[in-house]
Amino acid sequence: MRAKFRWIVCLVGVVGLFIAISGYAKNNPKTKEFRVERGMSKQGQACIECHKVETPGLFVDWANSRHAHANISCIDCHQAEEHDLDVSKTHFKQYQRSDSKWGTSDYRVPISAVVTPKDCSRCHPDEVKQYSRSKHANTLEIIWKLDPWLNQGMNTDWERTAGCFYCHGTVLKVDKNGKFDPKTWPNVGVGRLNLDGSLGSCTSCHTRHRFSVMDARKPEACGQCHLGPDHPQIEIFKESKHGDIYDAFKHEYNFDAAPGTWTPGVDFRGPTCASCHMSGAGTVMTTHDVTERLSWETQAPLTIRPSEFKPFPAKTNWKVERNKMKEICKQCHGQTWVDDHYIKLDQVVKEYNENYFKPAKAMLTKLYEKGLLDKSRFFDERLEVEFYELWHHEGRRARMGAAMMAPDYAWWHGFYECKHRFNRFMAEANHLLKTGKKAEKYDNFPGTGGNTTRPYQIFGRKK
């Protein structure tokens, strides 16, 4: 009887311990495991010693990086499997050299020149997961769904390679000898489709081979792509009070603060692109999904909520995301200041939609229906160009200027130009309606013929 009692007590204790452990596991996140190794494989050492001579600039960048200080070397990022599509076959020749002790078969290892988000996810899983759901990572899908330049072949493949795809990203391809197609490489576009199926390039912002968080926190990193007549965020930032503070005090900013700890008022005085759209502050966590914190799609033809953006509907609630951005703003501004800013932005969006885009779109549709404009190709008639630039150039500048508090872009580069573009568009459109004469076509439109087949790697093969 006593033995039976002891057995019951033991069983109850084990069950209780199991319940306690289960509760602990449920309520406590898994801790990350870090391991620092003092040694390094001979192959890893060979990479370093060879690149120190062959590409000293690359080596010095790596040597000054946090990766190097954590004993993460070339091989940890670039090593591949023999069967991988992006294995560099030409690199194998480096192990057949007679002029370097590191160039022998003893050190042979398959590597890829392309380091992808999938590779980075081995150490940065959360960041890669966040990035994968962002508009950055999926921008190739977005532009193929939106852009008449691509869908109607109104520019050449080389124009796209040097321009559009340099920021948006290419679909990487290799030939039968394992060499990259020069139309797709080199490229570090934010939406690059890699041969391992991953999307994007972390080095778009964290440039090789320093991979510095400091680099990505500065507005100049974003200004590589976010500039020019159609999305001049870097110019808008420079005009704003935020940009003025940055220019005046950036030498005092602590850009090297540890990830997740970069704090307004402590590490920097005025915000940068990253501090508003990505970095954490207050109760808002750091994110690599730049789609978060947005309550309007100010780059779309008609301004809509991110969840209503058909080419890539965000899986977010705009009210939740706006409150996140407001929390960021309130690190430096009072509640009334923040609320009134959004009242102004919402009114600007309404005026652009109702006064400019909707009437122009209705007129364009009417001209197509009456056969006064030819629908077969875009951009080969002046009114098509006028309509496109109304939303893609001036319309974006007006909305983005208001969103980022740059009055010259909201007015002189924005709504002022919208008025002139709109009036020219409407005047010619009404003339065509009155006379019944078809619009003049640009028969000799230069630089056309780009591939109009959507990438099957993203959209699937046609049946």
UniProtKB/TrEMBL annotation:
The keyword Transmembrane does not apply. Keywords: Signal. One of its GO terms (molecular function) is oxidoreductase activity. Residues 120-190 form the Cytochrome c-552/4 domain. InterPro entries: Cyt_c-552/4, Multihaem_cyt_sf, Multiheme_Cytochr_ET. The keyword Phosphoprotein does not apply. This is Seven times multi-haem cytochrome CxxCH. It comes from Desulfonauticus submarinus.
